[in-house]
Write a structure and sequence with these properties.
Helices cover 69% and strands 0% of the residues. The protein is built from 7 helices and no strands. It starts with a helix and ends in a 6-residue tail after the last helix.
């Protein structure tokens, strides 16, 4: 394994991976845990693979970790609903520390005018909410295709589905986003 190349890949990937995980789980600590887990799995199981394979493998590991998180939440919620009478009145068993900021602005804001920065923050906040409201598979397809720049075949491999499913999920995501986002409306 070329550990320097792997370290470089992981450093270059961590911010984007965090944003994808953050949109997928809406919890900063959980997103960080998921990214760390995905990085460890890539290093342990695929560090010896050709470095050109790492982006697709990493995205597949990351997407599976996000899906696993949602599956665990679903089971947890089912158990909580069965035992809801044990939760004290007025207490929300599902409360969490969701962050309102899902995407981190990585652009260098110091070189932009305040009005432009404010406008970009508003657009970014609206986009964060809209992407966060998409169904999980549409989120994954959209982020992998348009954020990570994977092609349809790579996205299908990362998501573990057919290329047709990727096209369908992307199409539905784009339609929903174009209906939802005010800055895309005429």
């Amino acid at each position: 394994m070329n550990s320097k190349a792997l370290d470089h890949f992981l450093v270059a990937t961590e911010r984007r991976a965090f944003r994808i995980a953050m949109i997928g789980v809406k919890n900063e600590e959980t997103a960080l845990d998921i990214v760390q887990l995905a990085m460890m799995r890539l290093a342990e199981k695929y560090g010896h693979h050709d470095p050109t394979e790492w982006p697709m493998l990493f995205q597949r590991i990351l997407q599976n970790a996000i899906l696993d998180h949602h599956r665990r939440l679903k089971v947890r919620r089912a158990w909580l609903s069965l035992f809801s009478e044990l939760v004290p009145a007025g207490q929300d068993p599902e409360s969490s520390d969701y962050s309102d900021t899902l995407l981190i602005d990585i652009a260098d804001e110091a070189h932009r005018e305040p009005e432009a920065r404010m406008s970009q923050r508003q657009v970014q906040a609206e986009l964060n909410v809209a992407i966060g409201d998409l169904p999980l598979r549409q989120q994954q397809a959209f982020l992998l295709r348009y954020w990570e720049g994977l092609d349809i075949t790579q996205t299908a491999l990362a998501m573990g589905c057919s290329e047709g499913s990727v096209k369908t999920h992307c199409s539905r995501a784009m339609k929903k986003l174009s209906e939802t986002l005010s800055f895309l409306k005429p």
